[in-house]
Amino acid sequence: MSTESSPLLSYRLFSEETPLVGGDMGVAVGPPHPDPARRLSTFFGVVVPTVLSMFSIVVFMRVGFVVGHAGFLQSLLMLVVAYVIILLTVLSICAICTNGAIQGGGAYFMISRTLGPEFGGSIGLMFYLANVCACGVYILGLVEAVLDVFGAEGTDPPGARVLPQGYFYSFLYGSVVLLLCLLVCLVGARIYARAAFLIFLVVNLVLVAIFVSFVAVGPRQVPVARDANHTFNTSFTGFRLATLRANLPAMYSRDYTTNNLMTFATVFAVMFNGCTGIMAGSNMSGELRNASSSIPKGTIIAVVYTFIIYFLLFLMTSFTCERTLLKEDYGFFRSINLWPPLVLVGVYAASLSASMSSLIGASRILHALAKDDLFGIILAPAKIVSKGGNPWVAVLYTWALVQLVLFAGKLNTIAGIVTVFYLVAYAAVDLACLALEWASAPNFRPTFQLFSWHTCLLGIASCVLMMFLISPAGASGSLVLMLALLGFIHLRAPASSWGYISQALIFHQVRKYLLLLDVRKEHVKFWRPQMLLMVANPRSGAQLVRFVNDLKKGGLFVLGHVEIGELDTMPSDPIQAHYNFWLSLVDKLNVKAFVDLTLSPSVRQGTQHLLRITGLGGMKPNTLVLGFYDAFVPDDYFLRDPAFSQARENDHFGVDLPALQAHFPLVRGAGASKALPAAEYVAIVSDAVKMHKNVCLARYFPLLDKQRLFSSKAEGCFVDVWPLNLLRPDTPAYVDVCSLFLLQLACILTMVSSWRAACLRLFLCVESGDRGWVAKEEKLKELLSKLRIKAAIRAVTWDHVVALHGQPLAAGEPFLNSAARQVTDEYLAAVNALVLQQGGQVAVRFLYLPRPPADTSMYERYLEQLEILTRDLGPTLLVHGLTPVTCTEL
Fold first, then answer.
1. Which parts of the chain register pLDDT below 50?
2. Hey, is 2 helix, strand or coil?
3. Residue 828, H or E segment
4. What is the pTM of this model?
5. DSSP code at position 576
């Protein structure tokens, strides 16, 4: 039916009553709802704050510093490198922003919603600290500019030197400026945007005056005063090619403000600080009218505009000013301007604006961190907002931290730290975009297409390289801090509903490797057990789950469960809602297992389904493990284990402990009837054998207590292997496929770190009249040696047991040729007693499991024989192996 012919359908598709749900950074989430806090346009919300942050103090007070020390060529190289780095990051920002709705928090929001809470929280906090330090840098630069003119040791005439100087006074002046920024930010983003626009006009007017002055002012001598007793002249030459030639090469010397020797790295750190404002617009994402559109457009416009201005300033400065002027007077723009006070106005305005931008941007990042509750009670007050939506408590937090930064006292002292922290954040944004691109998720389809994984990877590499070039110690320290924060958040934070890019990447890679895992290339040398454990009730089967987890040896381990029912009689599939409970159970038991559930009319059919369809490609179960069919009533494991009896605050994925316990039924009491008939249980075993699956039947594993067995006070324990088919003692072979299979499983168990203290024992049943038992023992020793299995061989005389095996069906029939002797209960009881008589503390016994009889009427008798054979043996695994699993060749 066409939507054009149905107005009602059109209304229903786009009605606010039925919005689409896609989540953050995903698809659009329905009709737009106007937010009163989102009032800023692209120009006022992104272009203006980004340009002012990128100019800041650097454009007026550090152009001479950069060109004077680095020369025009290296200055141009620094400029290009800096802008290539930030442009690569801007491309990543644009891609992420145009892929979905952006909320408050800017770069933190992008990183956390892409890389998850651990990366987002750690890098978000570091980006917050970078903005805090940047605010301090801008304020210190403003104070330096003020004292350079009005300070007692300033360069202006004595009449203007009215402000006392010193460390304490610098801190005091910085605190006053910071208080002014605080007052503006406490009012809110709208008043900040208006103030920023006025400053934007002033700064651009000053830049126009500077460019005009380069052309209009003729050559002159410029006095430079270091102090009252040290004054000298240098030259502003106007446009001269000789001046440009002299300024081309680098000539690093000591910075007169810190007396430190400058290098390429230190100069680049100071200059790069003027480019680090690219996130100023992103930080205001919560106040932007259309953040997904405004951030890319506004940021690119600001980057292009500031690059042109910086390039022209570098070029004109190199053409017109002697190097001495550049290196000895960082505020030389005022000395060569048509109206010197105008430059001061620009310096003060730009620095004040950049300070406010960093302060308000940092507060928004902190508010977003607090809302996500990644750092607990420490940041909880930062969630508080005013009626207009202004996070005033976060502003106060940030103001207090900037006060601490002002103790540094000198601009160049902390510029390197700021730069390293910004580079970490930029690299994280590039990493987020790279992860999204590599994951190839269908919902990652940004409207901005001018990026690729190459630009993301290059951005990461360049950021990391520049971090270590600028400050190796600072870069190392920042990475250590990031890892520490990542670990803290991983341990503390609850699971988020933001989506994990790691899951998308893992899926992408696993799919590739599964396609490469070709079952036709399997070889016995690399065989490993891949277990499907059928679990009826984890309250009684938890110990068996943990045991099979030990037994899998890096192979596939799947917990299978069959729900009885017909889908035709149900409104929806009940299985899907149960997966979370089973996955939470896997987390609680701390096992590496998958979960596969099915709905079937019977347990047998459900098990057949799971044996056929569980797994993928070359990772499919080759061994079925079942709990034994008996009347044993185990304890309720949920009541014994502290993980199930003690509530935890951090309940993952919406399944708390009471819900988990309520989902699984209580353990059946003694005398309660089984839902599964005995014949059907044996039929399941027979089905698995027919499907060429190895079978293990586990009995008494609720009694397995590893903590007691392997405690420091306990005596040594054993893992016993009985490789002979005890139900068919006339079988001559000790080394058939099944015997080797159960030997391999026992060996694998003792290879697990928690089982290495157990000793492996292999039992050889002999008759007193059999003279060939020594040869059999030697043959077994040779086999164990070839298989690299360390085990003790123990010969056990069992004449009294064999005598009970039954009488020949025909008189005179030789014993070894009898293939159909009756197995009596007395014989089975004698075998059971023989196994129990073996000394030592036995942890687990591995016994040979005969194939089920072909006659289905004998199924219940078969199960009775197994029950008598294993009665009271403790944890016992009956094993029937069909596949070769051992190899003696390299």
1. 1-33, 649-651, 807-820
2. coil
3. helix 825-837
4. 0.70
5. G
